[in-house]
């Protein structure tokens, strides 16, 4: 009888251990995504503390018209060959070389985000830059708006 209780107790403890371990595996995130999110959050904190001013920034354009990608582009290849993901911090610009890092600042809210150019566009007259939805919403003063005026600076 004592053996049966010991075996049942051992089985129960093993099940509890395995269920907690599988929960950790499910919550494991892609290191690249965590790194990109962490970089951007740290950049936002650094910007609020005035530490981003230590970066070499070259003003490209003030009062530029920015918009964001539609979700229908998720999974498609960009002009650089990378797979588009609306949950990352990337952008499309007509002229900047792929891989260029840009600091995009919303002129009305003062919030900024750092993005990497991975695509060409926008091809709508009057628009200067297309941001991913995540980058756009992070700096948007009005979340219902699809466009905003921004300042674009190149990180050298």
From TrEMBL:
Signal peptide: 1-25
UniProt keyword DNA-binding present: no
Record EC number: 4.2.2.-
CDD domains per record: DPBB_RlpA-like (cd22268)
Limits of the RlpA-like protein double-psi beta-barrel domain: 63-150
SUPFAM superfamilies: Barwin-like endoglucanases (SSF50685)
Top enzyme category: lyase
Record bears the keyword Transferase: no
Pfam family for this entry, one: DPBB_1
UniProt keyword terms in alphabetical order: Cell wall biogenesis/degradation, Lipoprotein, Lyase, Signal
Function: Lytic transglycosylase with a strong preference for naked glycan strands that lack stem peptides.
Family according to the record: Belongs to the RlpA family.
Record protein name field: Probable endolytic peptidoglycan transglycosylase RlpA
Source organism of the structure: Flavobacterium arsenatis
């Amino acid at each position: 009888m004592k053996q049966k209780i010991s075996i049942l107790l051992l089985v129960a403890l093993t099940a509890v251990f395995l269920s907690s371990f599988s929960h950790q595996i499910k919550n494991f995130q892609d290191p690249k995504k965590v790194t990109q999110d962490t970089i951007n959050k740290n950049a936002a904190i650094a910007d609020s503390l005035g530490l981003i001013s230590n970066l070499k920034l070259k003003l490209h354009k003030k009062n530029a018209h920015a918009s964001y990608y539609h979700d229908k582009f998720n999974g498609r290849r960009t002009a650089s060959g990378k797979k588009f993901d609306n949950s990352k911090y990337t952008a499309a610009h007509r002229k900047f070389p792929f891989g260029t890092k840009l600091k995009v600042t919303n002129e009305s809210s003062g919030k900024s985000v750092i993005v990497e150019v991975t695509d060409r566009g926008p091809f709508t007259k009057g628009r200067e830059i297309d941001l991913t939805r995540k980058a756009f919403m992070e700096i948007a003063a009005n979340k219902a708006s699809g466009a905003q005026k921004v300042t674009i600076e190149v990180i050298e």
